[in-house]
TrEMBL record:
Gene3D superfamilies reported for this sequence: Bit1
Protein name: peptidyl-tRNA hydrolase
GO MF annotations, alphabetized: hydrolase activity
Keywords linked to the UniProt accession: Hydrolase
Length: 233
């Protein structure tokens, strides 16, 4: 168990939002979720077959031993170029670009990231979203909560992480080989009630920002998962 006095870690994500070409909201959410999975599966984040830790392994353990807190900030132009020069991984969607960085202490952000804005990340979708492919994992967002795009991106990342934790090695390898293909959709109220009680992994928000503690935000519906329990994110 983590000591209450141990430093708290956070996973930083930065979304590129240029004034003249912002990404669609769903694209940004899906890209953020894939960015989290890409970092979790990166050899630098784990222990190799030789028993040696990757460069980010201890930071990832410290982060996962406490709350899996994520913070999304936005950047454009020179800000994005400076962020991109730091160690991390950039994941692209249809138009979205999200860079994920190894976990850092809550009060120890790199100076290139600490100046970036966290609030006001508002994105829209151009129209109704198509039904998700039933063969792909779906991160179902709650229809009952209003969240900024940045908050929703973090929650989608939580959902992807809970799905990843619930999979065996073969399922993880298959998902990685598929480029972590997934969809993010908002469930209709009836479907949400069904999903929330289905046993699939459920994100319960810690209540640091925007929404009440304990709120169910995301259900992670991966084809390889058919049972599970609510978990705190």
């Amino acid at each position: 168990m983590t000591s209450p006095d141990a430093p708290q870690f956070v996973l930083p994500l930065v979304v590129r939002i240029e004034k003249d070409a912002p990404p669609a909201r769903t694209d940004a959410l899906e890209t953020a979720a894939r960015a989290v999975l890409t970092l979790l599966s990166d050899e630098r984040a784990g222990t190799g077959s030789d028993g040696e830790d990757g460069a980010w392994a201890q930071a990832v353990r410290d982060w996962q031993d406490s709350r899996i807190r994520k913070v999304v900030r936005r950047a454009r132009g020179a800000e994005w170029r400076k962020a991109s020069a730091l160690p991390g991984i950039t994941v692209t969607g249809e138009r979205a670009e999200v860079r994920v960085f190894p976990p850092v202490p809550l009060d120890g952000w790199p100076k290139e990231l600490v100046k970036l804005q966290v609030s006001g990340t508002d994105l829209d979708d151009p129209g109704p979203q198509a039904e998700p492919d039933p063969a792909l994992p779906v991160l179902w967002m709650s229809p009952e909560l209003e969240m900024s795009a940045g908050k929703a991106m973090a929650q989608a990342g939580h959902g992807a992480q809970l799905a990843w934790w619930g999979l065996d090695d073969a399922a993880r390898a298959a998902w990685r080989a598929a480029g972590f293909a997934l969809s993010v959709r908002t469930a209709d109220p009836a479907r949400w009630r069904e999903l929330a009680g289905s046993g699939l992994p459920v994100v319960r928000d810690a209540g640091f920002t925007e929404i009440a503690p304990g709120s169910y935000t995301v259900v992670a519906d991966h084809p390889a998962l058919r049972c599970g329990s609510a978990q705190r994110g």
